[in-house]
Amino acid sequence: MLVTLKEIMKIAEEKQIAVGAFNTPNLEALQAILGAAEELKLPVIIQFAQCHEPWIPLELIGPIMVEAAKKAAVPVCVHLDHGETLEYLQKALDLGFTGIMYDGSVLPYEENLANTKKAVAMAEKAGASVEAELGSMGRRESGAGDDTGENDETKIYTDPAQAAVFVKETGIDALACSFGTTHGIYLTQPRLDFDVVKQVRALTGEMPVVMHGGSGVSKEDYGKAIRAGVRKVNYFTYMDKSGGSGALEYFRTVKENEPVFFSSVSMAGRDAMKADVKRAMEMFALMD
After folding, report:
1. What are the tens digits of pLDDT across the range 112-164?
2. I want to staple 92 with a disulfide (CB 3.0 to 4.6 A). Which of 23, 97, 223, 251 is the partner?
3. Are 33 and 65 in contact (CB under 8 A)?
4. Catalytic residue among 81, 103, 159, 276
5. 159 catalytic per annotation
6. pTM above threshold 0.85
């Protein structure tokens, strides 16, 4: 069932949980995520990030994502993650995406504000919802490399008072906040400031807060973040890593001189990703 980001955030708010948002830069990831969501009977957000364009074009994977969401047995939002230009946002809207994220976090505040307003107007015409980001989790938005971002001078925590003004002036539906997470793989345990989330919620009329850099966060910290008001958790790096581990494990089962088929490798990766996504979904829904 295809729904908007606003609708899926309403479900999360009513249930006091977070909905998992998982990137789908390949068909195996899409199958893994929707399969896990349907088995758990949980709503889910499937995403495509602009930085994944070199892996597969949005024009190719986007229509597949939208069609799969329509046929799913659970509520599914098809969302653009980290859209960097208004032109790219429009491309996603034209393909039928029901949520878009405008990422102007590295821009001066006034420019981020102005562009986010334009993104909201564009989304309204298409019947979609908008996520925006205030503050910055650092330079490694794509999750590339293994820097934890602990010493990244570009990491800026969200100012709750500024967030209140930003939300009121833009009319967005969800706000990605920087409160200590970082994209990619953590080498050390992240130090999260849950008061940022609580204050943003208090000053914005309980605006749904989005956690980026969700891979690698402890179960305990997920619980604290969700109870503080996080309603969407972006999770990709560890899911992607699990797919690689699943493929590697498959290779270990192949006997000497036995043929290796790509379809078998891809299915091993898909199944491993599905198991990891289920575990993540259960945490976000406070099921275990």
Report:
1. 999 999 999 999 999 999 999 998 765 444 444 444 444 444 467 899 999 99
2. 97
3. no
4. 81
5. no
6. yes
